[in-house]
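Complex record, two chains
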Amino acid sequence: MTTYEMVRTKAEAAHRAAGELAVTSTVIKNKALLAMADALEAGAAEILAANAKDMEAGRANNMKESMLDRLALSQVRINAMAEGLRQVAQLEDPVGNVLDGRRLPNGLTVTKVRVPLGVIGIIYEARPNVTADAIGLCVKSGNAVILKGGSEALQSNIVIAGILTQAAEAAGIPAGAIQFVDSSDRQAVTDLIKMNGLVDVVIPRGGAGLIQAVVQNATVPVIETGIGVCHTYVDAGADYDMARAIAINAKVQRPAVCNAMETLLVHEDAAAEFLPQMLTEYFAAGVTIIGCGKTQAFDKRIRAATEADWATEYGDLRLSVKIVSGLEEALAHIAKYGTKHSECIVTSDYNHARTFQQRVDAAAVYVNASTRFTDGFEFGFGAEIGISTQKLHARGPMALPELTSSKYLISGDGQIRG
Amino acid sequence: MTTYEMVRTKAEAAHRAAGELAVTSTVIKNKALLAMADALEAGAAEILAANAKDMEAGRANNMKESMLDRLALSQVRINAMAEGLRQVAQLEDPVGNVLDGRRLPNGLTVTKVRVPLGVIGIIYEARPNVTADAIGLCVKSGNAVILKGGSEALQSNIVIAGILTQAAEAAGIPAGAIQFVDSSDRQAVTDLIKMNGLVDVVIPRGGAGLIQAVVQNATVPVIETGIGVCHTYVDAGADYDMARAIAINAKVQRPAVCNAMETLLVHEDAAAEFLPQMLTEYFAAGVTIIGCGKTQAFDKRIRAATEADWATEYGDLRLSVKIVSGLEEALAHIAKYGTKHSECIVTSDYNHARTFQQRVDAAAVYVNASTRFTDGFEFGFGAEIGISTQKLHARGPMALPELTSSKYLISGDGQIRG
């Protein structure tokens, strides 16, 4: 069987199962999620053994320490995955919710209801917990799922997906609804993202390279996620202590994630009072500062920012800093280099706050708070399958409702169009 | 300037204008729409002169009569276009509407508001009234628009777009927000659908060939519209007079449109009572019947349906007819050959009605009414930019709200993540 045939066979099976899963009751889906959580914990030894093989291969291939950390599983992490499935079981099932409706003048009733998307392809890297998260969210929202994980986590993912599939089917989820592509052939991704008619959407989760490859080559609809070149703009006259606390949190608290800050923009009238202590705090926290010419004048350790720096998601303890002439220059900089993820202004000025929130084109626009809050759990959605940075279908943190579509049900008694 | 450079220049101008248009007030947008309507009527002579050139070229190229009819403009059609713009002015502006919101435990307020999509590309064929409709809906929903019409209507479209752009800008719409690709080079389509970062979505409106070419080649998100292989299933025990009235209306009233029926499915227990009179009515209406073997037994004028027939959107007075063993076979046939547009069951059985609406995967699922009602105006939306047959972002008739995205506004007083 070629890779194409293998992927197509899985897509056909998922497509067949999707019709049945779409009308599977919430009671059965919740029962399945709880059984899947139990099975994951019961299979911990098997999962850890598989994960040890992935870790060994990773070390042999000189994988970076941060990457190894994301790959590593433990009893605690397996319990957390199981707990995640139990939490998804407690969330409201969006399928069947009535979104809108009316009676037309001719007596027809029109009701718009939520339905599953159908078959969702998830393409991801490194972290094996995504396997359990994605399967759980897709099962709950009534979607069949095809998972294609990174080769570095292949052994772990095979075992996790196998355990979850078996438990789900035993609990009444239609056979075929959960598909895992147990191959490290990259061709499988290329095939999956062209399965129009069988796959309804693909969601890539990973680095910019993966996401761009999917966007450029997919013929199936794509939801772009998670590339974040996020800015914090410190306005003149802001509460500079608050600004420093926000700017430290947004950069340092967890620099590898997409809602962390990459560029600090400082009003030129704020720089003298705000920046020296800010730089001291950043250096103390181990942050490397890359700056514009005016910023460099504040400290000789600051290297000059290039055009590429402004557009880079560092994902580590590097930070670009630019001194700007005011709100307009900050807005222009964000429009040019931002990735429409999360942007923040720290200000005391009502009009500047209002203008910033209205004019910045991003999924999440903050006044006086850290960009780190852009997250489905923080926003109170109880789940997250990714953060959409595109404008179609869903924008920002995506939870269960974002994994649904809708259809119109029209009921009549013989109406015809005149 | 190459075609690519021309398209890119227009996309950049639209992208620049989109930021300003997104925050342009409803008052200005409505004033512009009314001014555009007046300008269209004032420019009728110029529009008709340009249309005469297109018609002449069409006749010289042996264009089909139905195509010529769609291309032809008249004073009445120009007035209707103007009236359409005035109606759009009266619709509610979706931009700025609050969709959701909450206060988080840490005191942050999160508000989800509607925002324009940004820049919308519309790729369409033949009918020059689409130029005015699309510009009107995009202006009202705060989106910049790039139009690429068919070469057969180029002269008409150039004049219409020119008149509307001038009137819009004079009334305060940002310069550049309305772009028309005044070229019949097909390369312009290929370039437009790859303008990631400048174009937020493309909506193809036209035949299956155009839509598939866009879906297969676009890297920008696409909303698929309007291919309809729609079915009507007549259940055993249905009100057969009602069924015949619906089946005539769905096929005959306007066969060229996407919500017209292409295939009639008849329960085998209904056939003897229902079908003879149905066929008599169809033949009287000039309908050509293509049928399965069992259907052919009812009349010698019925030619045998091929596999291709079941999957074809005839768009004219041809109809495929199949006698099925019951609801399950009808559902399976629709799942295999339907295009997820509009599907109907005519039945008196509660459980069959419920099962059909739950299990058919389509934008609009009818009980006892003609599929011809799938339309933004009929549904009471007051507008329509197309009918989405995909599941992402929008499904079914798309009006102003479907031309928007959302963003989260988060306001705090120094919150940082722990």
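Note: Residues 230-373 of chain B form a domain with the Aldehyde Dehydrogenase; Chain A, domain 2 fold (CATH 3.40.309.10).
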